């Protein structure tokens, strides 16, 4: 697509694919772009993302910033028995107005 050769698109439920996709990256550093449903990410996905040693950067796209708060907190909280691996550190939040003349935005 557009001459890009170092990308792969996978269709299906994230719960079924996220572990195998991350494992298939070998020792290559990984950047993940997550666009969860309105309800947010399943906790099992958050745990897999947190525990993968080569996943250093995460882009989280949310259609409802209020619903994303739990996921964002879990992705950034200190390591624990539930959330192993280093926490992600928020760098910036950018609201995008896809719904003009409403009080909604993508984040």
From TrEMBL:
Catalytic activity: uridine(54) in tRNA + S-adenosyl-L-methionine = 5-methyluridine(54) in tRNA + S-adenosyl-L-homocysteine + H(+)
InterPro entries reported for this sequence: MeTrfase_TrmA_AS, SAM-dependent_MTases_sf, TRM2_met, U5_MeTrfase_fam
Protein residues bound to S-adenosyl-L-methionine: 35
Enzyme Commission code: 2.1.1.35
Annotated transmembrane regions: none
Entry keywords, A to Z: Methyltransferase, S-adenosyl-L-methionine, Transferase
Residue stretches in coiled coil: none
Keyword Transferase listed: yes
SUPFAM superfamilies recorded: S-adenosyl-L-methionine-dependent methyltransferases (SSF53335)
Tagged with keyword Ribosomal protein: no
PROSITE patterns the record matches: SAM_MT_RNA_M5U, TRMA_1
Active site: 63 (nucleophile), 63
GO molecular function: RNA binding; tRNA (uracil(54)-C5)-methyltransferase activity, S-adenosyl methionine-dependent
GO biological process: methylation; RNA processing
Family label: Belongs to the class I-like SAM-binding methyltransferase superfamily. RNA M5U methyltransferase family.
The protein's name: tRNA (uracil(54)-C(5))-methyltransferase
Source organism: Oppiella nova
Lineage: Eukaryota, Metazoa, Ecdysozoa, Arthropoda, Chelicerata
């Amino acid at each position: 697509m557009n001459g890009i050769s170092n990308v792969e698109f996978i269709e299906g439920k994230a719960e079924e694919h996220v572990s195998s996709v991350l494992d298939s990256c070998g020792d290559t550093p990984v950047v993940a772009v997550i666009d969860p449903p309105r309800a947010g990410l399943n906790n099992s996905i958050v745990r897999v993302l947190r525990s993968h040693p080569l996943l250093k950067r995460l882009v989280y796209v949310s259609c409802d910033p209020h619903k994303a708060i739990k996921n964002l907190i879990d992705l950034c909280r200190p390591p624990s028995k539930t959330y192993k691996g280093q926490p992600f550190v928020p760098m910036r939040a950018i609201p995008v107005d896809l719904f003009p003349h409403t009080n909604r935005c993508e984040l």
